[in-house]
Amino acid sequence: MDAHKLCREYGENIINDPGYVDIFPASRIPRQIQHLLKPIYRLTSGVSKESLGSYEDEQEEGFRIMTEPRTLFSVLQLTPDEQVRKMAYLKGNSVPHANHEVLDKLINSRHELAQIMGCKSYAEFVMQLNMASSPEVVVSFLLEMSNMVKEKADEEFNTIRNLKRDVCGQRCVDLEPWDEAYYTTMMKSSAYSLDSAVVASYFSLPQCIEGLKLLVKSLFGARFDSVPMAPGESWHPDVLKMCIHHPEEGDLGFLYLDLFSRKGKYPGCATFAIKGGRKISETEYQLPVMALVFNFSRSHDSSIVRLNHGELETLFHEFGHALHALLSRTDYQHFAGTRVALDFAETPSNLFEYYARDYRVLKKFARHYSTGEVIPEKLVKSLNGARDMFAATELQRQIFYSLVDQTLFGEQLSVPRDTNSIVAHLKRQHSNEKHVEGTHMHIRFSHFLTYGAGYYSYLYAKCFAATIWKKLCQEDPLSPTTGTLLRTKLLQYGGAKEPADLLTDLVGDGIVRYHNGGIVPDVTSCLEEMKLLDDKNRHIGK
Which SS3 state, helix, strand or coil, does residue 140 take? Predict the structure, then answer.
C-alpha cells in the first residue's frame, strides 16, 4: 500500500482509538485534574434509608480517563492511587491495536521504496540528504550518547526508586513505568516548592503572544501584529492572522495562529507551510505564509487561558520553526525555511526554547494575569532547576526512541522481525524503565510518520542549539547584534546552503564533528549544560 496512505491511517487510528479506563469512585482522581476527565455514573445497590433491610439502586460517580497522551501524562504525574496510574498506563500504551498491522506495512512499504532507489534500507535512503549521511554514523552517535548518559541516568533512577520505597515504607518495592512521572513530579515540587497554578498565573496566553512580539522586535527590529482576514480566509473563528513587518523592508511574511483545542482538530502542536517564499523576479518576492497549530485548553472556570511552562516552551519552539520560514529568503520554494536537511530542521526551534527559560527575556512579558506583577526571578530559577532535575533520564529516553526508529527502518532481515520484541530488547539495553508485556509504545509514536529514520534529528538539534546559545546568545540573548547574526547567517538561507557550513559560519569551530564520512554534533555544550561532562566524556564530545 502507498506509504502516505499508511501514514494517514496510522495517525487517524491514534486519534480515533485513544483508549479509556473508567475509575470508581470519583474520589480516586485528584481534584486538580478532574476537569480533564469525563464524569460517569453507575448504579450500585445501597440500603434504603426508609426501611433498613430493603435495597434500592443508587448512582455512584466516577471518571472516564481518555488515555490520549496529554491526559495520560497529567494522570501519571498527579494521581496518588497507584492502581489508577497502572490502569491508565497499560491502556494508553497498548492502543490503537490496528497500528500493529499498519506499522508493519509501513516498514515494508518504505523498505521497498528504498530498494527501488538502490538503497539497502529506508534509513540509508533518508540519510542521503542528511548531515549524518549514513545509518552507521547515526547509530554510532546514539550508542556513544547512551554510554555517556548511563551512569547519571542510573543514579537518577535509584533516587526515584528510593523515594517510592520511602513513601511506601517498603524497601523491596520496584519502580514501575507508571511511577516515574508521579515521583519525579513529587520531588521537583518538594525541592523547588512549585505550584502549577502559581506558575501558570504568569503565563496568560495574551502575555505569551506579547513574548513572541518581543522576540521579533528585539532581535529583528520588526513588528509582529494581528492583521484582518478576507471573508472565508480563515478555517475557524478562533484563528488569528499575524504579519511580521519590518520598518524598512516592509512585510516579511504571514502567520496563522490556531491556538485552542477542539473536537476533530489535528491533535498535536505543529508548524505547517502554506506557501513557501521564493524569488519571482529581480524586484518581487513571494512572501512565505505559515500556520502554527496548538491545542491549548480553555479552562472551564476562567476566560483567560493560562499556559504551564512546558506549553510556553512548546509555543517558542514552534515559533522558531515559523521564524525559520518567515525570515528565509531563497530563490526557490523547495529550499525555503524548514525545507532543509532533516537533521538540521529542529535546530532553530530548539534554540528558541532557551528564550522561554531565560529570566532576562521572561521578565519583559511574563506578568501575573490579575495583578500585573512581573514573574519573580526566584520562580524562574525554580522552574529551570526542576526541569533539569532528571535531565539524564529524559535524554536516555530520547536516545531509546531514536534507536527504535533506526532499527525499525534500518536493514530488514530475510525473516520478518517482530516489532514488539525489537522495542522490548532496545528498552532493556538503553533504558532503566521496565518493559511491560502487552504495552507497545511504537504503535502510537506519530514521529514515525514525519521523522521515519530521522527522529535522531531532535538530539542533533539539542546539541547544535546548546552550542549556539552558549557561544552566541547567552551573553545578551535579545541584542539586535545576536538577531542580525541569527537572521543573516542561519535563518535566511533555509536549505539553500549546506547546514554544516551555516553552523560553522555562525559560531566558528566546535559545533560539528566529522565521523566516518558523516557529520555529528559536538556534544560538549549540551553535556556541560546537563552537568554530564566529566573527564571521561570530555574527549569523546569533541
Answer: helix
What is the rounded CA–CA span in Å between residue 76 and residue 26? Answer: 16
pLDDT digits (tens, 9 = 90+) for 262-290: 988 888 899 999 999 999 999 999 999 99
Q: Is 268 helix (H, G, I), strand (E, B) or coil?
A: coil
Distance CA 240, CA 237 (A): 8
Instruction: Tell me the C-alpha distance between 79 and 179, whole Å.
Output: 10
Which residues contact residue 318 at a Cβ distance below 8 angstroms, ignoring those fewer than 6 apart? 269, 270, 271, 292, 294, 349
Dist. CA 442–CA 74, nearest whole Å? 21
By C-alpha distance, which of 436, 404, 409 is closest to 423?
404
3-state secondary structure of 12: helix
Query: Is residue 173 packed enough to be buried (19+ CB in 10 Å), middle (13-18) or exposed (0-12)?
Result: middle
The DSSP bridge pattern shows strands 289-296 and 250-260 to be parallel
- The neighbour count for residue 47, using CB atoms within 10 Å, is 12
pTM exceeds 0.70, yes or no: yes
Among all residues, which ones are annotated catalytic? 318
Query: What pLDDT is recorded for position 45?
Result: 66
d(CA 82, CA 238): 39
The pLDDT value given to residue 171: 82
Rounded to whole angstroms, the Cα distance separating 337 from 318 reads 13
d(CA 69, CA 96): 12
* Nearest Cα residue to 359 out of 296, 400, 399, 309: 309
Got the DSSP string for 458-474? HHHHHHHHHHHIIIIIS
pLDDT in tens, 430-449: 999 999 999 999 999 999 98
The yes-or-no verdict on residue 48 having pLDDT over 50 is: no
Q: Is the pLDDT of residue 179 over 90?
A: yes
Mean pLDDT over 154-172 rounds to 94
Q: What are phi and psi of 247, to 5 degrees?
A: -60, -30
Mean pLDDT of the chain: 94
Please give the CATH topology (third level) of the domain spanning 129-410+453-541.
Answer: Neurolysin; domain 3 (1.10.1370)
Indicate the domain borders of the chain: 1-44+58-123+437-452, 129-410+453-541
Residue 224 phi/psi, 5° resolution? -130, 95
The SS3 of residue 286 is: strand
How far is it, in rounded angstroms, from Cα 537 to Cα 542?
9
Mean pLDDT on 284-313: 90
